[in-house]
Design brief:
By secondary structure, the protein is α+β, with helices and mostly antiparallel strands. Helices cover 15% and strands 32% of the residues. The protein contains 3 helices and 21 strands. It has helices at 116-124, 232-247, 293-314; strands at 6-7, 24-25, 28-29, 46-51, 59-64, 85-86, 90-93, 107-113, 132-138, 148-149, 159-160, 167-172, 179-185, 188-193, 198-203, 214-218, 224-226, 251-259, 267-269, 274-279, 281-288. The strands form 4 sheets. The chain has a 12-stranded antiparallel beta sheet with strand order 11-12-15-16-18-21-4-8-9-13-14-17, with helices on one face. It has a 5-stranded antiparallel beta sheet with strand order 10-7-5-20-19, with no helix packed on it. A hairpin with a 2-residue loop joins β13 and β14. α1 packs antiparallel against α2.
Amino acid sequence: MKTRTISFCLGLTITTVISSLPAKAASINFDNLQLIPVRPIDSDNVLSFYGEPEDNQGQTAFLNFDPTAPDFGHREISKNSLPDQFAPYYTVGRQSSPEQSGATRATSLNGGTGFMNFFSYVNTNSIDLSRIGFGYGQKSDQAFTETWNLGDDLLGQDWLASPDSRIEERIYQANPNSVESFLVLDDMQFINFDYSPLYVVFDKGETVAFQDDAEIVVTEAVNAQKVSGLDPLLDGLAESFVQDVKLQGGKVQIFSEDSGVPDPVPVIDPSTGFALFNLRLPLSIRAVQVPEPSAISGLFLVGTLGTLLNKRRQN
């Protein structure tokens, strides 16, 4: 889910929350954003994951190495971006990378808070947390270019940045029927998540150095479903996860936050002509509750009526 800007050594170099709610993560204040409509939702029920390329996990950002191709990616223009720095056009979990490394997931579970039923089931059945993982990318019967991407890659539509601001916003999207995000036990999927665009925010920091850069990726709040036809162990694990989500609001939000990550060395795949960048991925899955649009409208209506009645009394 990480989609860092990439400098080429050859000179080419995760349901919208009410926007009025204040939201801040790391150095990024979501209330100041202009393109991205979602907000991170706080939760006391969080599963924490992490994946490193050295462990054949993490994620792959990639682009067509042909600078004339529409999926090459756009040049960075935000303040403190390096010269000849380009945004990767695609993002995918390591298990679905064009590299085909044999990976089974992007990240592995390493802890969490809440999720009482889930962790109780894990402990009762002596399931090591590292066996549970998260992945995202194109489905197995789809080409790797069907994963989340920058679409038309248009300024003001798919991304937004300015030389006067160190913030860049991006929206990575895909055909919902062509991609998937999921939980696995070993290499078996037991939970599927509904589709959401990946909303990405970069803060290029006070300097051109990568050490003060920050990046956040967040999805809409989505549903989670059990995979059908599971064996008893997996079915119980999936059911415990779903029950916890239902108890805490009925939705999940996928969230990633990282900072100070150096740009990786690109791997050029001669068979596809794509440049690949394998990146670490810290990630959390949050059980969240989102107000119903009708309830929000009702609150606004009540407030409006109260204001009108107040004015009438004053007159």
